[in-house]
Amino acid sequence: MSTANVDAILQNIGSEEYFPISYEELEQGAKQKMSAGAFGYVRSGAGGEETLRKNEDSFKKLSIVPRVLSDVAGLDTSINLFGRIYPHPLLLAPVGMLKMADEQADLAVAKAAAEHQIPVVLSTVASYSMEEVAAAAKGPKWFQLYWSNNEEVSFSMVKRAEEAGYEAIVLTVDTVMMGWRQEDMRNRFSPLKLGYGKANYETDPVFLNSLGSQDSDSIIQGILDNIHHPGLNWKHVAELKKRTSLPLLLKGILHPEDAKLAVANGIDGLIVSNHGGRQLDGVISAIDALPHVVESVNGSVPVLIDSGIRRGSDVVKALALGAAAVLIGRPFVYGLAVGGQNGVEKVLENFIQETKVSISLSGVSSIKDLPSLKIVRA
Ligand SMILES: Cc1cc2nc3c(=O)[nH]c(=O)nc-3n(C[C@H](O)[C@H](O)[C@H](O)COP(=O)(O)O)c2cc1C
Ligand SMILES: CCCCCCC(=O)C(=O)O
């Protein structure tokens, strides 16, 4: 391991201010900084939170069987997605309404990710518009689309993303309506109604033209009318595919048959995800769904994963089970709440370094060799 890695591991020791390292510490730190409603919104899952818990528990039930004496001196953690090389197998998952955590929200997150050339996936319901984020941060960026009932609004947002330099479109397909979120009902908290997610809508000419009036209340009502889209189906996906030259990924795939249909519809990549346990409670954990999805697409498209990834050894397990890359969700949101841009950078540095240590100690020296690493259910 290089001296730089050791330095990074020791970064907290002797430094003046301690920054949380573990996920549990980050969560506690964020709880102290955020309002009860905002923290509850980020932390919680749907229903009885069975899936939220299962996401993490499933990772813990998997064990790495490492190799030794395999010369890991020349570690290579780079990956290739859609023809572009990234230095780490990590992306930042789309997280909407980040002003709940920090005023600089998506701007701070995109700047932190750019420091490491980690792609950030900007949410449709971001707190800053896609053009503002593109102007603030020059790193790789993808755009996450929530389908709009007025489909011309969807196509308009995709066109804007292309023009602003976003490199892929991620259509989220597990959110045709909001999950049953008891914590938010208890707290009477809706960040959408508070306007934290309106930036991409209030800057969209097609959306604005569709409204009778363009005051703040009408914009928010317009978003609520558009964002629930129970009619979404494969025809929309096929039409969207025709409308963009960018790689199109579907986020929220758990069933191998849906994965096959996605490939048949020309989709370029999949994200195995249960939305961090925030949509349908009781569903399979993402890491348990992953090998079946990977098998069903048989290498035809890259399969990424999110939901429950908390540390470097989780990244190793996901890549060993066939993921092309992983997306981090809540950990970076908590980093943002605790320390703004600097907090996100710290979370990413720890993920990067722990991932490197975990791959090396597994006896593997390149990401492309991780699928040969033995993982057992213990
Ligand atoms: C506060 C919050 C907001 C989110 N907003 C979005 C969003 O706008 N679009 C989306 O596709 N997924 C959204 N997600 C889901 C994440 O992209 C991701 O699937 C999930 O956070 C992964 O699980 P993890 O947080 O356990 O890592 C959100 C998640 C959280 C916690
Ligand atoms: C209709 C779904 C709106 C969801 C907004 C943000 C999100 O994805 C979340 O998990 O919260």
Automatic annotation (TrEMBL):
Pfam families for the chain: FMN_dh
Catalytic reaction list: a (2S)-2-hydroxycarboxylate + O2 = a 2-oxocarboxylate + H2O2; 2-hydroxyoctadecanoate + O2 = 2-oxooctadecanoate + H2O2; mandelate + O2 = phenylglyoxylate + H2O2; (S)-lactate + O2 = pyruvate + H2O2
Keywords from the UniProt entry: Flavoprotein, FMN, Oxidoreductase
Domain called FMN hydroxy acid dehydrogenase: residue spans: 15-378
Binding-site residues, glyoxylate: 41, 146, 181, 275, 278
Required cofactor names: FMN
EC category name: oxidoreductase
Active-site annotation: 275
Residues bound to FMN: 94-96, 123, 144, 172, 251, 273, 306-310, 329-330
Taxonomy, superkingdom: Bacteria
EC number: 1.1.3.15
Molecular function via GO: (S)-2-hydroxy-acid oxidase activity; FMN binding
Family assignment from sequence similarity: Belongs to the FMN-dependent alpha-hydroxy acid dehydrogenase family.
Protein name per the record: L-lactate oxidase
Organism: Peribacillus saganii
Taxonomic lineage of the native organism: Bacteria, Bacillati, Bacillota, Bacilli, Bacillales
